[in-house]
Specification:
The protein is an alpha+beta fold. The chain has 16 helices and 37 strands. 20% of the residues lie in helices and 34% in strands. α11 packs antiparallel against α15 (640-648) and α12 (383-408) packs antiparallel against α13 (414-437).
Length: 728
Amino acid sequence: MLQWIPKEAWLPLLLAIFACSTQTAMAEPSDDQSGIQVRLGLGDTWKLGHVCPVRIAIPSSLRSAASGVEVTSVDGDGVELVYRSPVRSGSASVSWVPIRIGRQTATLEVRVVDADGGVLAEVEMRADEVATGLSSAQPLIVALGSSMGVEQLSRTSADGKSATFSTSVITSPDQLPPHWDDYSSCELIVISTRDPQFLQNISKQQWEAIDRWIRRGGGCIISLGAEATQLSSLQSLVNILPGKITGVSQVTNPGPLESFIATAEEPIDAFPVSLVELRSGTHAKLSLSDRIARRVPWWVVYAHGHGTIRFIASDLEHPSFAQWPDRRLLWERLLKPYVDHALLEGSGGETQVGDSSYLGYRDLVGQLRATLDVFPSVRVVSFGQIAALLVAILLLIGPVDYFVSVKWLRRPDFSWYLAGTLLLAITAGLTWWYGSIRPDDVRINSAQIIDIDSVTGAVNGRLWSHVYSGSARRLNIEALNSDAQIPVRLGWQGLPGRGLGGLLSQFNTNRGMPAYGVHIDANGQTRLEGVGIPAAGTKCLFATWTDSIDLTAASELKEISGVDQIQGQLVNPLNVDLKDPMVFYHNWYYRLDSRIPARQAVTISQDTVPRDLARRLNGRQALGQDDATTRWDPADRGSLDRLLELMMFHKAAAGQTYTSLMHRYQPQVDHSNLLETDHAILVGRIDEPPVTIRVTASEANGAGAQPQVRDDVSRTWCRITIPVQKNS
């Protein structure tokens, strides 16, 4: 064929072939090359403003010299920042770095460095080109092994830019990150047991990350198929199951399942079912009969720490389900607690508080940010006050000056001296006034929610904090636990939406702001270095951590026969008093005394009359023969405790219908799903926060003195889950 190609075209053709082969080799670098391999997110999917685990494969030629990895990204304000994490020199082939990406089209720079900071290898990429980038409020379902048809429920908008939810399927253990915080971007984890080998290859550390994420308030659906007996020795999976695997059988009469989901199409064929011996206190929501007429728990809903799990004792990918037209109705029932009902119905969840409203947010996190941005010691000057001040100044240097100099003293030349003196006095007065209303030191507002599992003693914490600086400066910021051995992960807090400062905002708010660093220690402790804050500006932060407490005494609650109410003894497991305590159980709440002393107990008797939970959360009061609901104001800035309560139980408070705001940015904070299980939740406030923010001056400021730091607002609420003994 070369005879048909002109001689003058041979050289360009050969060069083109060489270039193509080179690009192919670079696109798939092997382990012995000098390049590095990078993967973003969960199954190549990441979310704006959420933790995005970056998997960096270091080639063998660099491992002996590699000391650390660096990833350059941008935060929610569009400011450049560099994440730095150490690696074990000489042995680490893969390093995971948890970063956050603040812009959809952000350019990432990934570097492997030596002990002196020298760059051994680096690669540059656009985040949305190497992995799928989702908006901060887009629900994400992570499926392990198989999605089992869950994506059939997702509806795409007419313009193709949004969908009900996104699904990321992970089929290789290499794609699973090693830390629970790396799953913060997903609403739900779906586990299929169709491929036992895949599940068995998942490391113990990876299983522990999934387990801990669920315990922190995550949701999980487990579909246990006919391969159950092959997984009975996989203890990491068995730990999150509702009981012990005892065998496999066959369901020949699935009529109760068809009735349960109100199927309207043809019936489902017979299918295999896993036999699980439920542990004490766990009850089936739906049981089916197998071929020898045994009642088999098929659909089980139970609490796992502060999270919830829905267990299905069959493989939803089995041909009987895959070919069943109404499988989507089953998935709709399963997803309803985790994905907004408005989304499943295709309404999209738009509210009267839209992106274009003056508030600039439509998520509860936005209202929390606006509330924490109010510092009691920092006075805010309204536009009306500024206008009145300008009018007063104009009156002084205009009519008043004219009246005194011309009309009264009859010396027009005196106006030069009087007006000049007035301007100097006004300038000095305004300077003094500004210093009094805008202090030059550093102020901190913080809100914390602490979740405690009364069965295991596990503690999970979240902190939102705003750091205010009166003058422009660069600061080092770190979140410290009262137990110095407990690491705290700290990062910037994003604002979902297109409002000013939002993650989808088109405004550039990073003008003149210097880049800063995020140093991640080997144990996970994180500190921000050289964070630039403008004069009278704030930096929004979010921190997470896990801990454990010693449970010397346990609460004992049981359900009263014949009614959906509880009685028994409640124990405060903390070393501090629990103030304003309440107990939530199903649709009820119990108001207790003003405080429960440390390590002390109170009793809920059969005579204790509970109140309707919705009345509490919606602020409903009886007015004559009618009920009046206290309207929720999304613009309110002075009700931090009430706001935190709604964040903790948003769905139970009728969610978006009541607040006019969504709760999709950090949905794991909402523990309304726990109210469906056989667990009570003790809620109370403590005065001594377990985690505090430490602020010091950065070396970039020069040799200046350390700023004076003061806490303005600090609120800490605890939620303690307590199992309730059900009547047989």
